[in-house]
Structures are given as C-alpha cells and as structure tokens.
Amino acid sequence: MSKTFNKVHAIRGMNDILPNESYKWEQLESIIKSLLAQYGYQNIRTPILEQTRLFARGIGEVTDIVEKEMYTFTMKKDADKVDPEDMLTMRPEFTAGVVRAAIEHNLLYERPLRAYAMGQVFRHERPQKGRYRQFHQLSVEAMGFDGPDMDVEIILLLARLWRKLKLTNIRLELNCLGQSAERAQHREALIAYLEKHVAILDEDAKRRMYSNPLRVLDTKNPAMQEMANNAPKLFDYLGAESKAHFEAVCERLQQAGIDYVINPRLVRGLDYYNLTVFEWVTDALGAQGTVCGGGRYDGLFELLGGKATPCVGFGLGLERLLELADEQGVFQSPQETEIYFVHQGEKASQVAALLAEKCRDAGWKVMVHAGSSGFKSQFKRADLSGARWAVVIGEEELAQNKVALKPLRATENGTIEHQFEVPQADLVQVLAERK
Ligand code: ATP
Ligand code: MG
C-alpha cells in the first residue's frame, strides 16, 4: 500500500493563475464587462466541448487551428462505431460555438444581437511567452448587422478599451477580403502566380497553394517575402460594393480619429471572414504581438445550417492584453482585510466569530484568527493581513463584555493611536464612526 506517488504537475502550456495574479484578472474582466455593457452587449456562455465537426466546418479544414491545434477525442471505446458526431473538441475559439447556439436557440428571430463570450480556449501549440495551450479570449459577436457602421463600432469599442487600460503602443491593421466570388477570381490568378514561383515555395506553401493560396501570402518565411509582395492583390479584384463597404469603414474611422494602416496581406487564420478584417498589433510583447483579430463573417450562419446572417466580431487574447495593461500599472492591489479578530480561549473565540459576522453585516472585510495561538503570533498575522483594526478579546474583555480596539495603521501625522475599550454591543457603531 505504501507505493510512493509521483507529484502531479499542471499540464504544459496550461497555467495556474494564483492569488498574486488573479486579482488582476478579476479587475480586467470587470473593466471589460462594464465597457461591453456600455455598447449593449449581452453575455453568452457556451460549453467548452463541442462536436469536432462544428469547428472543422466553421473555422475551415485547411487552417492552422483545425489542421494541427485542436484537442480532439472520443469517448467511444469501439473504433468501428465512431462516427463524426462522436468526435469531440475543446473549443479553440468562441465564434463557431456562439453561432451554433444562436442557430440552435433561434436567438436572432426578432432582432439582431450583440453578444460576448469570455473564458478558456484550447490550442495545441508550442508553448512560449504569449502562447499557451489553454488561454483566455474575449469574443465579441455583433450578429445580424450588415453595415460598415457596425464594423467601426466594434473597432471603437476596442479603442475605448485601450484607453481605459492606458495602452498607447497598439496599432490597427485593416484589410478587405471582399466576397467569395471576388476571392475565387483572385484565387485563380494567385494559383497561376504561385505555380510560376513554385521553385521558391516552402513545404507549407506547397501544401496550401491549392487548398488555401491566400494563406501562402501570410508567410513569415523571409525567402518568400518578395514573391508574396508582388503577388496579385485581392484588392484589384474587388467589385464596387465591396469597395464601397471598405471605403465607408475607412471614412468612419477617420471621422472618429482612429489611425489605421491598410495591410493587403492581412488574411487572418480563420476561413470564415469576408469584407472587413482587422488586427490590433503591438511591438511591446515581442514575437506574439497580435492582441486582437476580427472581421466580418457574413457566411458563417449559412455554413453551419442557419439562415444567412451578416455578422462582425473579434477575438481578443486576454493573456497578452493583461500583460500590456499590467505594464501600464492599471491594476490596484486587491482590497485587503480591514478588521482582524484576535482572541484567547474557546469562549472568546466563539464571541469573536459572532461579532465578526455583525461587522460583516455592516459591510466590513473581516478575518477571524483561526485556531488558537499566542497573542504575539496573532498580532503578527493581523499586521500581515493589512487590517486597519485588531479587535482583541482576551479573558478580561470577555469577563466585561468588552473588546479592545487596537488601531494597526499610523494616522496621517505618523502616530498610531492607543488601543481603547469598547462594549461588545457598541463595536459596530464605533467602527462605523471611524470608517
Ligand atoms: P497568432 O497569429 O498569434 O497565432 P491567431 O491568428 O491564431 O494568433 P486568433 O485565432 O485570431 O489568433 O485569436 C485571437 C487572439 O487570441 C490573438 O490575437 C491572440 O491575442 C490570442 N491568442 C491566439 N493564440 C494564442 C495562444 N496560443 N496563447 C495565447 N493567446 C493566443
Ligand atoms: Mg495561431
């Protein structure tokens, strides 16, 4: 029975968020939630697990995510009986699941919907700074809106978030992917061009040149940069409507005073985008500089079996955002304990527990020393807790139905007040006078 047990560690690329960091997460999340409320967004919470085929279809078979980054498994033990519906995947992003839910529950029956989801997503990538296997995203989805006005509204929402977090070192890159017919024409020209340059294509590019040639241009391979720069531009294949949409986006951004750079090679790693796509990029995070990516996905509802529904949204990486905000010093140390109860003996401990509840009723943050130890070590804990007051109940106080109130922090003139006695019945009142 005495077999030793090898200690268990967290899975590589999946981080514990400990109390010395979690308060920053809570503050970030609350800033984000109040901002989203200002723009009329409602929360939606979809399951972490979905059928694999949702993501294969929704994100696209020939994408990094679906090709190599998904955590996929089945609970069926008998390989012969596994059909595609039995394959499950831990969400690698939110949009596909949110759209699935919107279709399933007919959420857009009466009116369009602004929805957001926030939480963990999972991608099997090589862990490094800013890149994890479990990470957090905010996903914002404006569903049922077709105009450039909504493309710009969500960009303004993001710009406001940067302001709230005091981020300045972050820039907007923008592109227009047109509609699928326009992309098809461009794609033909692009494939012909890539065929002419096949000699300098790397393995990734060769594999993708027929399945997803646009992604070939997204390459980071230095040897392919010039080829990519001179490739046929999608923009030259856009029709009047697509161009008008894009021009309207640009015009509204200018009106709102939002700087942007048009990046014709910005295609995004997900298949479902059309018309406007954008990324917010920073140089402050090293190699993992993309904080947020988004765009229009007018075709996704239909792709997933719903009615045609124009949508625009974005995915924002919270680890990267939190790091940027932390550098700006926007997070405040968490609210500490205000009152610490120090006591001696079983009876005093009982009285302390009940008085502490009364103080909490009055809104104070209260900690009662747990267990029994000497006054000296209890006062040390009281100090460490950050409390302003120690409420002391020793034998003498107990006998007289009193407590001693001991100020632990210096007043403005640098002195610490002496402790004084207060009848137990008056404690809450006396503290309230000194709030
Ligand atoms: P990247 O080019 O960095 O791989 P991506 O295009 O795969 O990003 P999206 O799918 O658009 O990213 O996800 C939106 C955001 O989520 C990214 O801009 C980034 O901030 C964050 N993100 C993506 N992958 C990771 C990861 N493995 N770890 C931490 N954050 C990530
Ligand atoms: Mg990626």
From TrEMBL:
Q: Which UniProt keywords apply?
A: Aminoacyl-tRNA synthetase, ATP-binding, Cytoplasm, Ligase, Nucleotide-binding, Protein biosynthesis
Q: Which residues take part in binding L-histidine? A: E93, F94, T95, R123, Q137, E141, R268, Y272, Y273
The catalysed reaction is: tRNA(His) + L-histidine + ATP = L-histidyl-tRNA(His) + AMP + diphosphate + H(+)
The identity of this protein, by name, is Histidine--tRNA ligase
Compartments in which it is found: Cytoplasm
Q: Name one GO biological process term.
A: histidyl-tRNA aminoacylation
- According to its UniProt record, the EC number is 6.1.1.21
Q: Which family does it belong to?
A: Belongs to the class-II aminoacyl-tRNA synthetase family.
Return the PROSITE patterns for the record: AA_TRNA_LIGASE_II
Can you tell which superkingdom this protein's organism belongs to? Bacteria
Q: Pfam families per the record?
A: HGTP_anticodon, tRNA-synt_His
**Naturally occurring in which organism (per UniProt):** Oligella urethralis DNF00040
The UniProt entry's GO CC annotations, sorted and at most eight, read:
cytoplasm
Domain named Aminoacyl-transfer RNA synthetases class-II family profile is located at: 1-334
